[in-house]
């Protein structure tokens, strides 16, 4: 969310969320070294299994392993991640406030030492034909950050393992059996497959954290389907910058059929994204790269900025993006975090910050479970529900700022219509 002199939007923020970062999506592969023998060895039982190794899941693992759990000093934690190490994800910008969460996770020093670049602010063409600017020069926490996302994810994974959590990569969650809590401390039986092995492995867990992203795959096995208020479609291009000098500011532009975004990344990379509806711009679907380039070229702000760069090795990716919330966010021995709990329109810019925040909150829920004080609905659910209502109102306000194309389908749907309440 941008807040400038010429861009009078209220920030998408609550007490816990002040982020300006796009929600995470997983795309092209680039590996970092890891001990495959270590990550692929799975035990039969764990106190806590975290399904999903993104920022939310890894933050939860760190928080649980470093929390003061009283007499429970050696809680076993397994993180199950379906991707291999080093997958590049969309979600490359973090707000200044991210340093507060990184300090809680014990990785602030490592963050500053990695190849991340400070970002001076945002430039946006939204609600008017000329740019508005938002600078971080007066923020006491410093600048926002453009991430080397692979290094960022590796940092969180290393911290989780150093704290005693186990991570199994290239491992898919395929289903669960639930036994009565009174029958066994290990109330969940989880079925996993590793790599190309189609034979499932069985792991029992006393507590499960669903960090599987917007699909909320574990919650779905409990017959809990996310209520979706809106569905959008994004096409993303990653590329290497061979020559040219682009803006260090993150750029955002509203268009007649949606909006687009661009940011320079560390290591001479650039990411560009177009967001619309699948029905409005069918030629942007993955596989039609020329359609993406033509649409980007028609923009008045982002497009000319792109033209200043000579790019090579482009890769294109498409994904659906959702705005929704689980009607049930937790049980006595499970909870959802990050996008699995609440998935936001990327215009709200809260993805990584939201994930880390949820992960940090997981330790209290696990502590309550260990002490037999866990409830079906705690303050965690109430807080996330309140935050989602704030998000809905702010999202409508954000789109309502753009009145130039208020009669076009994309904008008309998002300016005036109530939530869609679809099931994902």
Describe the 3D structure.
The strands form 4 sheets. Strands 7, 8, 14, 15, 16, 17, 18, 21 and 22 form a 9-stranded mixed β-sheet that branches. Strands 2, 3, 10, 11, 12, 13, 19 and 20 form an 8-stranded mixed β-sheet that branches. Strands 5-9-6 form a 3-stranded antiparallel β-sheet, with no helix packed on it. The chain has 2 domains: 25-117 and 144-227 and 323-386, FAD/NAD(P)-binding domain, CATH 3.50.50; 229-322, D-Amino Acid Oxidase, Chain A, domain 2. Helix 2 (55-66) links the parallel strand 2 (45-51) and strand 3 (77-80). The protein has 11 helices and 22 strands. Mean pLDDT is 84; it is low at 1-39. The protein is an alpha+beta fold. The chain has helices spanning 36-39, 55-66, 98-105, 108-113, 149-162, 217-221, 289-297, 302-307, 351-370, 379-400, 409-416, and strands spanning 25-29, 45-51, 77-80, 87-90, 93-94, 117-119, 121-125, 132-135, 144-146, 166-168, 171-178, 188-194, 201-210, 227-243, 250-255, 258-265, 269-276, 310-325, 330-331, 334-336, 342-343, 422-423. Helix 2 (55-66) runs parallel beside helix 5 (149-162), helix 3 (98-105) runs parallel beside helix 9 (351-370) and helix 10 (379-400) crosses helix 11 (409-416). This is FAD-binding domain-containing protein. GO terms for molecular function: FAD binding. It holds the Pfam family FAD_binding_3. It comes from Litoribrevibacter albus. InterPro entries: FAD-bd, FAD/NAD-bd_sf, Flavin-dep_Halogenase_NPB.
Number of strands: 22
Largest sheet: 9 strands, mixed
> Please, how many domains?
2
Helix fraction bin: 25-40%
- Poorly predicted parts: 1-39
Query: Within the CATH hierarchy, at the fold level, what is the topology of the largest domain?
Result: FAD/NAD(P)-binding domain
Overall mean pLDDT stands at 84
The whole-angstrom Rg is 21 Å
| Proportion of residues in β-strands | 25-35%
Q: Assign an overall shape.
A: globular
CATH first level of the largest domain: which class? Alpha Beta
Task: Give the termini separation.
Answer: 25 Å
Which structural class matches the secondary elements? alpha+beta
**CATH architecture descriptor text of the largest domain:** 3-Layer(bba) Sandwich
Number of helices: 11
The CATH superfamily label of the largest domain reads FAD/NAD(P)-binding domain
Protein name: FAD-binding domain-containing protein
Domain FAD-binding: 46-370
GO molecular function: FAD binding
InterPro entries: FAD-bd, FAD/NAD-bd_sf, Flavin-dep_Halogenase_NPB
């Amino acid at each position: 969310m941008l807040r400038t002199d010429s861009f009078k939007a209220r920030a998408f923020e609550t007490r816990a969320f002040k982020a300006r970062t796009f929600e995470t999506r997983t795309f092209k592969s680039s590996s970092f070294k890891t001990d495959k023998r270590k990550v692929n060895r799975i035990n039969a039982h764990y106190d806590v299994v975290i399904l999903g190794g993104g920022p939310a899941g890894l933050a939860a693992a760190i928080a649980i392993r470093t929390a003061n759990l009283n007499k429970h000093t050696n809680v076993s934690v397994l993180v199950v991640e379906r991707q291999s190490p080093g997958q590049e994800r969309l979600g490359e910008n973090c707000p200044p406030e991210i340093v507060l969460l990184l300090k809680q996770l014990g990785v602030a020093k490592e963050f500053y030492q990695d190849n991340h670049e400070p970002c001076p602010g945002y430039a946006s063409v939204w609600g008017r034909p000329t740019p508005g600017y938002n600078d971080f020069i007066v923020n006491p926490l410093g600048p926002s950050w453009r991430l080397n996302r692979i290094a960022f994810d590796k940092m969180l994974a290393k911290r989780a393992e150093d704290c005693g959590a186990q991570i199994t990569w290239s491992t898919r969650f395929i289903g669960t059996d639930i036994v009565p809590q009174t029958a066994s401390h290990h109330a969940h039986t989880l079925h996993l497959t590793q790599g190309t092995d189609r034979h499932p492995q069985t792991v029992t867990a006393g507590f499960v954290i669903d960090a599987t992203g917007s699909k909320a795959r574990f919650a779905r096995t409990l017959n809990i389907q996310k209520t979706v208020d809106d569905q959008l479609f994004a096409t993303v291009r990653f590329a290497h910058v061979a020559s040219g000098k682009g803006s260090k500011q993150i750029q955002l532009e509203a268009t007649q059929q949606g909006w687009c975004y661009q940011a320079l990344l560390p290591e001479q990379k650039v990411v560009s994204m177009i967001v619309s509806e699948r029905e409005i711009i069918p030629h942007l679907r993955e596989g039609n790269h020329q359609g993406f380039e033509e649409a980007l070229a028609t923009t008045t702000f982002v497009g000319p900025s792109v033209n200043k760069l000579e790019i090579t090795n482009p890769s294109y990716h498409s994904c659906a993006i959702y705005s929704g919330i689980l009607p049930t966010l937790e049980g006595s021995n499970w909870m959802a975090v990050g996008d699995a709990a609440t998935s936001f329109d990327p215009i709200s810019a809260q993805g990584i910050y939201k994930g880390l925040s949820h992960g940090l909150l997981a330790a209290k829920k696990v502590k309550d479970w260990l002490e037999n004080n866990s409830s079906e609905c705690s303050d965690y659910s109430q807080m996330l529900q309140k935050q989602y209502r704030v998000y809905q109102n702010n999202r409508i306000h954000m789109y309502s700022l753009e009145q130039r194309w208020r009669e076009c389908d994309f904008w008309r749907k998002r300016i005036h219509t109530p939530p869609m309440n679809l099931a994902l």
